[in-house]
Write a structure and sequence with these properties.
Helix 9 crosses helix 15 and helix 10 packs parallel to helix 15. By secondary structure, the protein is an alpha/beta fold. Helix content is 36%, strand content 20%.
Length: 485
């Protein structure tokens, strides 16, 4: 059994992610007594704070981003007492010696959360090792981006792996910390209702949509070098696909769950030079309107011409017994009409309708798992409308809803990073991504990008506030499928 760490080191402690997610998550865990009582938190970044200045920074961030009803003054004081700080420039080896002195002994466990530019990974890992902050009791959590293709990902993983063994590396995909994502496993593997139908004989197709209404939002430098495929599909969407498609693991533990996920990635049929045109659509938003107001196009926001895709739609296939012939339609983009993340599963229709002669039309059953903005599970079933049926039987599609906030009204909805940070401190890797998963994901994504380049595919312009290029509609409609918007 892995022992909880008694120290936590946060790189990038003054950044936006830290202010919005990490610090509020740690405060929430501390306020409920879920962190080890002796856990000390050391923040580091290039900003030249001392302990007192950083505590003031942390307090300001918590008062801004933690709901007022959850901010307890006594708990806040106790949390701030845990916090210290030391500035570190990753390019300066001497700064790591000061960091090691601040952290102190690591024999009783140190967890590191590393959120830094990919160009600094090597220097940071080397600095940690030389300063004695990579010993037996140390584990490291890595926030994306972990490279921009297979080669750069391997370079980063090789650098980390030369110092930390795989069992002490925690690669973070925050989607895996969302309650509804974890509930997908419970829905599949804790209920006898769905699993017999969860295969090619019972499911017609699957759609996964992750849409955003925002544009660049200050991510110009990163996003234009990445694009929608690498920013969203390579990690979040493929992880969701794996949880939908994986075989039942023998146990709910890190090895068993991740073994089954990587099998899915290795079974994905390549979208390559021969199929990129027919199985993928890329777009870039132009000027339009979102939420009732005008917004500029991508190139206007960027300030220069660019072929970076802000929208991608894919038709994926999984070549194994369970999913042979079942298409998975994947879609993500910026400046779309609504912000939502959902998994839409359409089951096959009944083999024969006994109601045809009575004028009733049937719709196939559908399961909709909504991750954001509202966490919800909805099952659409056919039911008879009340009446005497003198003019024929009328059937209607009716929803069975499980609204997570309502079903579990007595439980607080947690930030995904609360679960992930606690798992990092406690050493549970189940919801983190293993190296072979990452490389299988990159292999599939790199083949798509190679296919785009070989076929000289350029993003098609779509108006901001719409659901992407019209070609994305054709991608599904040629199979008789309509996107669930």
């Amino acid at each position: 059994m892995t022992s909880p760490s008694e120290k936590l080191l946060l790189f990038g402690a003054t950044g936006d992610l830290s202010q919005r997610m990490l610090l509020p998550s740690l405060y929430g865990l501390a306020a409920e007594g879920l962190l080890p009582s002796e856990l000390a938190i050391v923040g580091t970044a290039r900003t030249g704070h001392d302990d007192a200045a950083f505590r003031g920074f942390v307090e300001q961030a918590l008062r801004r981003f933690v709901p007022a009803e959850r901010l307890d003054e006594r708990a806040l004081g106790g949390f701030l007492a845990r916090v210290g700080y030391v500035p570190v420039d990753a390019s300066k080896e001497g700064d790591f010696a000061a960091l090691a002195e601040k952290v102190g002994a690591t024999d009783r466990g140190l967890s590191i959360f590393l959120s830094t530019a990919p160009s600094l990974f090597g220097a940071t890992i080397d600095g940690l090792a030389k300063a004695g902050l990579a010993g037996e009791g140390v584990r490291i959590g890595l926030e994306k981006p972990l490279g921009y293709d297979m080669a750069s990902s391997r370079e980063i993983n090789d650098a980390v792996g030369s110092v930390f063994p795989e069992e002490r590396i925690f690669r973070i995909d925050h989607y895996l910390g969302k309650e509804t994502v974890q509930n997908l496993l419970a829905l599949r593997f804790a209920n006898g209702l769905f699993e017999p139908l969860w295969r090619e004989g019972g499911i017609d197709h699957v759609q996964i949509t992750v849409s955003e209404t925002v544009g660049l939002e200050g991510r110009v430098g990163f996003y234009d070098g990445a694009g929608a495929l690498r920013d969203m599909v390579q990690n979040h969407i493929l992880q969701l696909l794996a949880l939908v498609a994986m075989e039942p693991p023998a146990r709910f533990d890190a090895a068993a769950v991740r073994d089954e996920k990587v099998k899915v990635f290795r079974s994905l049929r390549p979208i390559d030079r021969t199929t990129a045109v027919s199985h993928s659509v890329i777009g870039q938003y132009g000027p339009g309107a979102v939420a009732g107001g005008p917004v500029p196009g991508y190139v206007e926001e960027l300030g220069r011409p660019s072929d970076t895709e802000t929208f991608v739609a894919l038709k994926a296939n999984i070549d194994n017994w369970r999913w042979k012939g079942v298409p998975f339609y994947l879609r993500t983009g910026k400046r779309l009409p609504s912000r939502q993340s959902e998994i839409f599963i359409q089951f096959r229709g009944v083999p024969h309708s006994i109601f045809d002669g009575r004028g009733a039309a049937l719709q196939p059953n559908k399961l909709i798992i909504r991750l954001q903005p509202d966490e919800n599970v909805r099952l659409l079933l056919m039911a008879k409308e009340p009446g005497l049926d003198r003019d024929g039987i009328r059937l209607r599609e009716v929803p069975l809803d499980i609204s997570m906030p309502n079903a579990f009204a007595d439980s607080r909805r947690r930030i995904a990073y609360e679960r992930l940070l606690l798992d990092l401190v406690e050493g549970d890797q189940t919801l983190f991504v293993r190296r072979d998963e990452v490389e299988a994901q990159w292999a599939w994504v790199d083949a798509i990008r190679d296919g785009w380049a070989a076929n000289a595919m350029k993003p098609k312009t779509y108006m901001a506030g719409t659901w992407g290029p019209s070609a994305a509609i054709a991608l599904t409609e040629r199979d008789g499928v309509t996107w669930h918007d």
